[in-house]
Amino acid sequence: MDPTEDRRILRTKxxxxxxxxxxxxxxxLHELTITEVTKHANCNRVTFYSHYKxxxxxxxxxxxxxxxxxxxxxxxxxxxxxxxxxxxxxRHLPIFAYIYEHRFIFRLIIKGEVLPGSxxxxxxxxxxxxxxxxxxxxxSNLEISALNYFMTYGSLGFFLYWTKQDFKDSPEIMxxxxxxxxxxxxxxxxxxxxxxx
Length: 197
What we know:
Number of strands: 3
Number of helices: 9
Oligomer: single chain
Shape: elongated
Radius of gyration: 19 Å
């Protein structure tokens, strides 16, 4: 496939994703039709079906894009470090800033009402990074994987709280709160050497 065609496909997919997100601000996914989305994106149904089988698949692609972005921002909090304290606000801030910037889609992901399983996808994407790229600094009687799941799924409740408050607190305030909570559970972590970028 030539680069021009690749760019055209990426542009078309981006237009469809943007159209769906904009329309979801007005009505629920079950109320939307492919015709509405394609009209809003200035393309046709044939083009839509050449990329996605239905609106759920298009929404799943949007969620995947944003979770990839979330993982990248999670890494930003530690990628230049050898170790960090769990109470370091700057380590938590990139995630909150990214979620806040894309709060409409993350409200849908975190609540899990529009796309079943999106809450688990959210958590599993963070669990995977923590499991492979970080390790606890101090000795622990707990299995690292058990603590990792506890911290991540516990944090889901924290993010859910933030969405229910309609993102009232700033990313900085939320990062401070999460840092305080994490500080009560473990002291610090070390970045696994071969995973540093």
